[in-house]
Amino acid sequence: MAASLLLNRVSRSVSLHRVGPALVFSSLDSQIHGGRLSGTLFRERSLATLAEGGASRFDEMVSANQRKYYLLGGKGGVGKTSCAASLAVKFASHGHPTIVVSTDPAHSLSDSFSQDLSGGVLKPVQGVDSPLLALEITPERMKEEIKSQAGGDKSVKNMMDSMGLGMFAGELGDLNLEDMLNAASPGIDEIAAISKVLQFVESPEYSRFTRIVFDTAPTGHTLRLLSLPDFYDSSISKITKLKKKITAAASAFTSVFGKKKEIQEPGPSNELDQLKERMEKVRNVFRDVDTTEFVIVTIPTVMAINESSRLHASLRKENVPVQRLIVNQLLPDSQSDCKFCSVRRKEQTRVLGLIQKDTELSGLKLIQSPLLDAEIRGVPALKFMGDLIWK
Ligand SMILES: Nc1ncnc2c1ncn2[C@@H]1O[C@H](COP(=O)(O)OP(=O)(O)OP(=O)(O)O)[C@@H](O)[C@H]1O
Q1: pLDDT tier, 337 (very low <50, low <70, confident <90, very high otherwise)
Q2: 206 near 176, Cβ under 8 Å?
Q3: CA of 108 to the centre of ligand 1 (A)
Q4: Which of 3, 32, 310, 311 allows an S-S link to 16, with CB 3.0 to 4.6 Å?
Q5: 77 lines ligand 1 (CB under 6 A)
């Protein structure tokens, strides 16, 4: 695409020119320069330097025809949505029918694509060649719907039914809905996300989608989401044990008081078995190195790197495959460096050094993503960012 055309499509405030041999990405209004705003020079040479840390090996990510899941996660505000959306656009541009799903209760997919993707249903993203569907899971709306459906009895059943987990409901029927909805772990956000994953895995309707990209919530939520299938698994075992105890107690009661009531023998429960199987499917999706990858997104600050290191340790413990680390918002080289920029650049060089020394992070493929001088909004801007990151 001609540079000037791209320029117009990326943003009204951004322009691309050729200055000598260098490609310049310039904006009139976004570079902080000595505390004031001034023009930016964003040079090809700078990008080449940034890319020295290693490319993403996008060829490996795009080549297989079989379904692949990519989960992008990290600390709040580091650029998870921009990276996830740009990856989804890139997959779609390479002919993969793709779904991008936000599991973050504070969604920003609509903002990122600059299109209305809200409402909790899959919506087609406009302006992309292959089919690209987007979904913002809306637990808040779901909570309200469930509460109103459940009415006065506060049963969990309606909630579980509405999420395709109805067979679990019989076992949990007496739990208080309010407690369940407000529970810290697992939360409804994670349950809603799991139920969507199940739909993608099981429903023939979605089988043609060969890439599923998750824009996940900040770290804590995401770790709960990944450990949820195990949580269910252990809960199912506890429920089965509890069922056996209750049946045994009821049986003792009848033998003492001679009450004639048919006691059900504690046999294997079909419904629970089915649920266990479905949870296992989700767990396998999250753990399968051939189909799934969690990409950690971070920024070049000590705090973000420390959190990324802890995140990788937790993912390793959960056996979730991780290969790539995106360091986003790196200040590119500039010929006319202001004091502020040179201090920041020194600091980010030091932080990149910390990554190399960090035992959790040093083994990952490092993808360096530059700080762009315009907000990344809309498909053209996401394509532009995607071409810088995913190569
Ligand atoms: N490399 C970049 N250059 C310039 N702006 C960026 C870059 N990456 C992200 N941004 C901007 O930073 C803001 C936050 O990005 P984004 O929404 O992708 O982060 P996030 O990690 O998903 O945030 P949250 O945790 O709040 O969901 C957005 O305005 C986005 O356009």
Answers
A1: confident
A2: no
A3: 9
A4: 3
A5: yes
Question: How far is the C-alpha of 123 from the C-alpha of 369, rounded, in Å?
Answer: 28
User: Residue 360 corresponds to which amino acid?
Assistant: E
Over residues 346-368, mean pLDDT: 95
CA of 147 relative to ligand 1 center, distance in Å? 34
Cβ 372 under 6 angstroms from ligand 1: yes
Spatial distance between the Cα atoms of 90 and 102, rounded to a whole number of angstroms: 17
Q: ipTM greater than 0.95, yes or no?
A: yes
102-106, 238-242, 356-360: which is most confident: 356-360
Q: How far apart are CA 365 and CA 390, in angstroms?
A: 12
Q: Whose CA is nearest to atom 16 of ligand 1?
A: 79
CA 115 vs. chain centroid, Å, equals 19
SS3 for 63-85, per residue? HCCCCEEEEEEECCCCCHHHHHH
Tokens of 356: 């190399």
Domains of the chain: 3-144+153-389 (3.40.50.300)
| Known catalytic membership, residue 104 | yes
At residue 159's C-alpha, the angle toward residues 156 and 161, to 5°, is 105
Q: Is the dihedral of CA 32, 35, 39, 44 positive or negative?
A: negative
**pLDDT > 80? residue 270:** no
Average pLDDT over residues 185-212: 79
Return the closest-CA partner of residue 200 out of 209, 189, 192, 191. Answer: 209
CB-based contacts of 390, cutoff 8 Å, min separation 6: 56, 58, 61, 86, 87, 90
Give pLDDT, residue 149: 47
Distance 182 CA to ligand 1 centre (A): 29
Q: Which of 136, 376, 383 to mutate to test the pocket of ligand 1 (most atoms within 8 A of CB)?
A: 376
